[in-house]
Write a structure and sequence with these properties.
19% of the residues lie in helices and 29% in strands. By secondary structure, it is of the alpha+beta class. Mean pLDDT is 76; it is low at 35-43, 45-61, 387-419 and 421-448.
């Protein structure tokens, strides 16, 4: 080196600062030496020597192998470039090789350019820029407000700090301006608003604040708006508040042409747009934006007509399509039920026949009258002389007479177990019995 070594200087700056406009310095002076006070005694000591020492010996006596220096004022959460220079009494030597490293996250600095854009009876709209030194990854901002009141002795006192709900979230690492609204304030009151950066670790940075008075209540100015992004089922409404009296919030009202009912969206205090959905394709809608300063102070904007894309479903053709298809389905079910009943009835008739078409069966009782017998024969279009023996041939008349009478008179119905033509399908009443033969047996003619 040229000259007498007194120390070193470390130069460092942010990697993004390509122009080195914010370069920083850290000086390190060797123990017992300084640029002025310690240089002269050191030189005087060297003059008293009998013999000039070699450069190697002098360098060995003045320097050590290495130095370890701690730099404590580095910015947080940035890429840093650094190099080292050697110092003598008057100059700094050439820069060493550069090193690059990443610093850890720290506490963010305060926001900058905090300003009030507009003030109403119960709201304020603010704007600010991110901190110059974020020192961390900022993912949002926390807003607090407190009323400034005058005490009995005339001094200003700060009320309880209240948080904004919800707090503000932004894209991580965003460097753009931030706009936010603070609503729910009391009219004619002074407020102090605090803004804190918030890191991804949910750590609050240094705050910045501003004070303003809210205004007395009055009707807001008429807002302007435009309708964009029209589809077959939705559109977007974006509004611009009045510059003189913006309003604390806004909502959109709309209705389909030909109807009298207006739909309303919720009141928006932090956004200046909203999407309207679930609209009928091919219909015309009337749309308007309402500026809101409470229920008593509302101003309605001009009404615009908006045509929704798509083909409208004509009411006369299918509007009441739900009712139409419901009635059609019910009619189909009724017809199907009638057809099913008809099919079942036909099958029963084919299998069993019609009961009304059956021939009346003769009752067999011990006290049957002659008139009843005649009526029975007439119903079958036969006479007594036409009757013949069909089931069995008795060996003698007395046997036939006794057996036939005993079988029917005593109620044992003996023939039903012998003759397969006997049936048991007639109910018993005062003049009928159950067991009736399909054909008139010979025993009956004997009995007569």
């Amino acid at each position: 080196m040229n000259g007498w070594l007194i120390g070193y200087v470390i130069e460092y700056w942010a990697k993004d600062d390509t122009e080195k406009t914010n370069i920083r310095y850290h000086r390190y002076i060797l123990p017992g030496r300084s640029a002025v006070d310690e240089a002269k005694p050191y030189l005087d000591q060297l003059k008293g020597r009998k013999k000039r020492e070699s450069d190697d010996q002098r360098v060995k006596r003045q320097t050590t192998a290495s130095y370890t220096v701690t730099v404590s004022d580095l910015p947080s959460n940035i890429r840093v470039l650094a190099h080292v220079r050697v110092l003598n009494k008057n100059y700094a030597g050439p820069a060493s090789n550069q090193v690059e490293f990443q610093t850890q996250q720290g506490v963010p600095g305060p926001v900058t350019s905090l300003n009030i854009l507009s003030i109403g009876p119960n709201y304020m709209k603010l704007q600010w820029k991110p901190p110059v030194y974020s020192n961390a990854i900022i993912e949002g901002y926390n807003l607090y407000f407190a009323a400034v009141v005058v005490s009995s002795d005339g001094k200003y006192e700060l009320g309880k700090k209240q948080p904004r709900i919800p707090q503000i979230s932004v894209q991580q690492g965003s460097s753009s301006e931030v706009n936010a609204s603070l609503s729910g304030l009391a009219y004619g009151t002074r407020y102090r608003i605090f803004v804190h950066p918030r890191t991804v670790q949910d750590q609050e940075g240094a705050d910045n604040f501003i004070e303003r008075d809210t205004k007395s209540p009055k009707a807001p100015g008429r807002p302007d708006f435009r309708v964009t992004d029209i589809t077959s089922h939705s559109f977007n409404v974006t509004w611009k508040p009045s510059s003189s009296a913006p309003g604390a919030g806004f909502f959109v009202k709309y209705k389909r042409e030909g109807t009298n009912y207006w739909d309303h969206t919720s009141v928006q205090t932090n956004l200046n747009w909203i999407n309207i959905t679930n609209l009928e394709p091919g219909s015309m809608y009337e749309v308007s934006v309402v500026a809101y300063n409470g229920e008593q102070y509302q101003t309605v904007g001009l009404t615009q007509s908006v045509e929704i894309l798509g083909t409208r479903i004509v009411p006369s053709e299918a509007a009441d399509s739900v009712w139409f298809y419901a009635l059609l389905s019910a009619l189909i079910l009724v017809v199907a039920g009638l057809i099913a009943i008809r099919v079942i009835r036909k099958r029963r008739l084919d299998r069993y026949g019609d009961p009304l078409d059956r021939e009346p069966l003769s009752p067999f009782t011990a006290d049957i009258s002659k008139d009843t017998e005649d009526a029975f024969y007439r119903s079958r279009d036969v006479s007594r002389s036409d009757l013949t023996l069909t089931n069995r041939t008795p060996t003698n008349s007395s046997d036939t007479s006794d057996e036939g009478f005993s079988d029917h008179a005593d109620g044992n119905h003996g023939n039903k177990n012998k003759d397969p033509n006997w049936r048991e399908d007639i109910d018993i009443d005062s003049h009928h019995v159950q067991d009736v033969p399909k054909q008139i047996p010979s025993s009956y003619s004997t009995f007569v």
